[in-house]
């Protein structure tokens, strides 16, 4: 894991009991995780009374360093020994290393989900709705008397802000074709998971 | 149900018996055009309403054509009505319609933000037609949603087999 001097400096300050007592350390650590993982977190995350005595510049630096490190560790799927090694190099005592690793372990799943969701992909189908109609006539054609389906796919784009829908009509044969192909896909999936 | 032919329409069609057996036309181009249009209108209206043979014969009878010409027109109608109806159906208010679908199974192994992944997904290429244009959409879904889609659409297919739908289809004709 390649980490900048900025991060290292931040951690060295965090390691110092003179700058951060046990309580402040834990609070800052939790704040870092919260900023990353809690969608509702805002700047007030560092506004705790027990952190007021620390120089805000130092506070910001350490918070940023911790957040950067957490993201890098999450991305690389760092294990406990990798974490410990780096923290030792930053002069963390064993108690703080243990605290960090525990906090990291508790948040690992959420972190990985967050990181996994970043990135570009095709629009993602989330749901389908359908309606079945019996067509009787149009202004061009009388006596139609045929069933038709209208299928709507609910789709989510990666930016999660647009939710377009894809609608199309089909007759019974076409819907059977569609369902048949999707069933083939799911059977293949089942077979692949059994390998 | 008889076709309601307007006076203008009857006039246009009156030109038809004048076409001699060699197919040579000795009239103005306007007349020819009107004649052709009249014929088209006759056939499309008949096809649209899906009128019976008898009704067609009776409708054409008012034009006072020869027995032979009437027979010819009837044959023309019967031979082409299916195709005419297909073309007319394409004029309906058009939603994109399903053409076909291709799929692919993928497993994402890593991304810029996360290494060592095993994320299965299904990539789907949906081919749709609209107004003669071919349109493709590439979409993706996860295994759980795929199963959900299959289940929902199978239910949709099952609906046609229910008593309710069968009754409607039987009784509205």
TrEMBL record, chain A:
Residues 124-193 form the COMM domain. CDD domains: Commd3. It comes from the Eukaryota. InterPro entries: COMM, COMMD3. One of its GO terms (biological process) is sodium ion transport. Belongs to the COMM domain-containing protein 3 family. This is COMM domain-containing protein 3.
Automatic annotation (TrEMBL), chain B:
CDD domains: Commd2. InterPro entries: COMM, Commd2. Transmembrane segments: none annotated. Pfam families: COMM_domain. PROSITE patterns: COMM. Residues 97-164 form the COMM domain. This is COMM domain-containing protein 2 isoform X4.
């Amino acid at each position: 894991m390649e980490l900048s001097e900025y991060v290292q400096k931040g951690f060295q300050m965090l390691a110092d009991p003179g700058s951060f007592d046990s309580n402040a350390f834990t609070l800052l650590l939790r704040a870092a995780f919260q900023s990353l993982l809690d969608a509702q977190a805002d700047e007030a995350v560092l506004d705790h009374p027990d952190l007021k005595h620390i120089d805000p510049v130092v506070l910001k630096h350490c918070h940023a360093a911790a957040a950067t490190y957490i993201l890098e560790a999450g991305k690389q799927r760092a294990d406990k020994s990798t974490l410990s090694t780096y923290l030792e190099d930053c002069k963390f005592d064993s108690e703080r290393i243990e605290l960090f690793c525990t906090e990291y372990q508790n948040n690992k799943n959420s972190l990985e989900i967050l990181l996994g969701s970043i990135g570009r992909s095709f629009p993602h189908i989330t749901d389908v709705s359908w309606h079945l109609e019996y067509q009787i006539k149009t202004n061009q054609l009388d006596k139609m008397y045929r069933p038709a389906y209208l299928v709507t796919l609910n789709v989510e784009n990666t930016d999660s802000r647009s939710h377009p829908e894809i609608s199309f009509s089909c007759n019974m044969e076409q819907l059977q074709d569609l369902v048949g192909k999707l069933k083939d896909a799911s059977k293949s999936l089942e077979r692949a998971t059994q390998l | 149900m008889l076709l309601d032919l307007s006076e203008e329409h009857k006039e246009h069609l009156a030109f038809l018996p004048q076409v001699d057996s060699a197919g040579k036309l000795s009239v103005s181009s306007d007349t020819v055009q009107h004649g052709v249009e009249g014929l088209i209108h006759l056939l499309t209206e008949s096809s649209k309403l899906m009128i019976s043979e008898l009704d067609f014969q009776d409708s054409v009878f008012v034009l006072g054509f020869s027995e032979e010409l009437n027979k010819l027109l009837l044959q023309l109608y019967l031979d082409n009505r299916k195709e005419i109806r297909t073309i007319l159906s394409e004029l309906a208010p058009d939603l994109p319609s399903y053409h076909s679908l291709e799929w692919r199974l993928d497993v994402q192994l890593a991304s810029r933000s996360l290494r060592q992944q095993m994320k299965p997904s299904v990539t789907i290429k949906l081919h749709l037609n609209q107004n003669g244009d071919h349109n493709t959409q590439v979409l993706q879904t996860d295994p759980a949603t795929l199963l959900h889609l299959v289940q929902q659409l199978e239910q949709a297919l099952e609906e046609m087999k229910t008593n309710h739908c069968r009754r409607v289809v039987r009784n509205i004709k």
